């Protein structure tokens, strides 16, 4: 049986699961919240009224979709920061940095300049995660998973956009040093449906308290 946070007081209090669209971050976050007996903090994608229009029309809805997410994420980060330090461990399926990552991918220069002005005014003071889990997978795998989950407006997501997005994630986490980082080859494992894969990953998560590490089904190997 996996050790819950109630049984093991030492360990991360705020875990972030990140990665491109379709990589499985929300599903993994849900399992981790159950194992840690913690609170799940989800990105409310369904509430964004501009998202479907963005996927269908692209540029015309990029800025309002981006700003809607920015305001939501800023509010969620403020709530996390104000939360009681003795509250349960929190598992989020997004990191605040993803907002700028998507903005740089989706906005034209003038829109990005406006976005940056608004960000500066918001001055989001996000809590630093105790651990960031970055899920990686090739574009073919992402496309299959997106098709499999059957969200109608996601059917318009094409290979070129996913390639651009996965490249942006790779560049971002290449330089990431804000928190301990666990890079997971999500194409080689199924931590949501495969209990052995999940157990091994969960044990690695509990061990990762510093540095940068890579996890695959065979072993968790420290990169540096």
Automatic annotation (TrEMBL):
InterPro entries to which the protein is assigned, alphabetical: DCK/DGK (IPR002624), Deoxyribonucleoside_kinase (IPR050566), DNK_dom (IPR031314), P-loop_NTPase (IPR027417)
Coiled-coil features, chain-numbered ranges: none
Single GO MF annotation: ATP binding
Gene Ontology, cellular component aspect: cytoplasm
Active site: 93
Keyword Transport appears in the UniProt entry: no
Keywords annotated in UniProt: ATP-binding, Kinase, Nucleotide-binding, Transferase
Binding site for ATP: 19-27, 145-149
Domain Deoxynucleoside kinase residues, every copy: 15-207
Pfam family, one: dNK
Annotated SUPFAM superfamilies: P-loop containing nucleoside triphosphate hydrolases (SSF52540)
Protein name listed in UniProt: Deoxyadenosine kinase
Organism from which the protein derives: Woeseia oceani
Lineage summary: Bacteria, Pseudomonadati, Pseudomonadota, Gammaproteobacteria, Woeseiales
